[in-house]
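Q: Here's a chain of 206 amino acids. Please give me its 3D structure as C-alpha cells.
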Amino acid sequence: MSVARRSVLRGAAVGAAGVGFTAVGAVPSLADSTPGPHSGSFPTHRPFPPLMDDPDGILALPPGFKYRIVTRAGETRLTTGQATPTLHDGTAVFDNGPGRYLIQNHEIGSNNALGVPQIEGTVYDPGVGSAGGSTVLSVANDGTNLAEWVGISGTLTNCAGGPTPWGTWLTCEETENKANGTTRLKDHGYVFEVWGDGKTAHPIPL
C-alpha cells in the first residue's frame, strides 16, 4: 500500500447522498447574485440561485439545472434479480469512459426485505442477512441506468463515506454493534473499500 493511499484510508471524507445533476444553461455566479461585504446591502438568506418549483414535487433546483432519478428502492432491479435496496445514503461518482459509476451506501441496520442481498464474494458478516452495504450503478452520461450490482454486503448502517484518488469508495458503518453469535457473527463499526468494476470485492474492515 502506498503512503498516499494509506493516508487517505485513515481519514475518509463524508460523501453526499443525492441524485445526478446537470447544468444545461447559464447559471448566475455567486458574485453576481450575492451582495458583497461592502455593498451596503444585507444578505436575504434566500437560496442561491433562486429555486424553481418542480411540477413533480420531488426536487426544486436553480434555473438551468435538471435531475434524473436512476434508481428507486423496491422498483429497479440489480443484475442478480433482486430489487434495489432501500435507504440510499452517501454516494460518489466516478468516471467510466463513456459513462459514470455511482457507488452508494444503504443505511440499513438489520435484516430487511429491501436490504442489500448477500452476494458471494461481497459478504463481510453473513449473520446480519440482507442489511446494509453498497451498490454500484453504471449510468450513461444522460443518467440512464445501465446496470446495478452489489459492491459490498453483510455490513450495517452504511452512512458516510468518501472517494479515494485511485477511484474506489470508502463506506463507513455508523454503528459500534459487537458480535452476538446469532444475528451478528462479527464486530461492526468499520470502514470498507468498495470497487466499482463489478469484479473486485474486498469485504475486509480497514
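Q: Can you summarize the key feature?
A: The first strand starts at residue 20 and ends at 23.
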